[in-house]
Amino acid sequence: MKKINLKKEEENRIISLFEGGESIRKICKITNYSQSLVQRVLCEKNKTERFKSNKNYIAVCKKTKKQYNDFKNSSGILIKHIQNNYNNIDIPSKFKRKSYEREFNQMWHEKFFKIEEIGEKKEEFKCKFCLWKTNDINNSSGSYTKHLLLNHKINIEKYLSIFPSDDYLFKTFILKQIKKIIMLNVKFVAKN
Ligand SMILES: [Zn+2]
Ligand SMILES: [Zn+2]
Q1: Looking at the domain assignment, is residue 49 inside a domain?
Q2: Which of the chain's termini has less CB crowding within 10 Å, N or C?
């Protein structure tokens, strides 16, 4: 297929139409460009994010229903599965598969696998000092506070002096501190 190169302003027009909420089909009608060209422009600009970073996906084999987490085939496992389960399939080179993906906005192995969304990725909070992580992203259970103290011998005051923008993790502690300051002031005022 011949590759048509668009001028920058034509590309931007496609992108702004898409961002304005027009469907790919409608954009083709308006601009008179082919669907694959419009898709390529949007794909290259990363405007058509098929897979959301906060969602989990699996690839399900259309023939054997086997499921794989590596739905993008980063490890090559999906191609291996195709080779093992289909006869006489000519697997295109990695380069050709990539250009297929750009052209059709679909991964080549999707001819053999259905991509299914399997729910939200759980948000995680990672310890700033080690690999420990928790799903309690606001530290509402206080487990991060405990972890810091037990594993790194760091208390909240010290931690906040290093990472002041993490103050949202220690709301109760900060409220207590504020109360203490107010009480001290009250006592001070009362004495004088
Ligand atoms: Zn299979
Ligand atoms: Zn840690």
Answers
A1: no
A2: C
SS3 state of residue 138: coil
Give residue 82 CA to ligand 1 midpoint distance, Å. 7
Asked whether the predicted pLDDT for residue 119 surpasses 70, the reply is yes
Q: Of 104, 120, 136, which residue constitutes the final position of a domain?
A: 120
Distance 116 CA to ligand 1 centre (A): 15
How many domains is the chain built from? Answer: 3
State the residue range of the domain holding 39.
Answer: 8-44
Map tokens 């054997």 to a residue: 64
pLDDT tens figures, 131-157: 999 989 999 999 999 999 999 999 999
Ligand 1 centre to CA of 65 (Å) is 6
H helical segments located in 20-155: 24-31, 35-44, 77-85, 94-104, 143-152
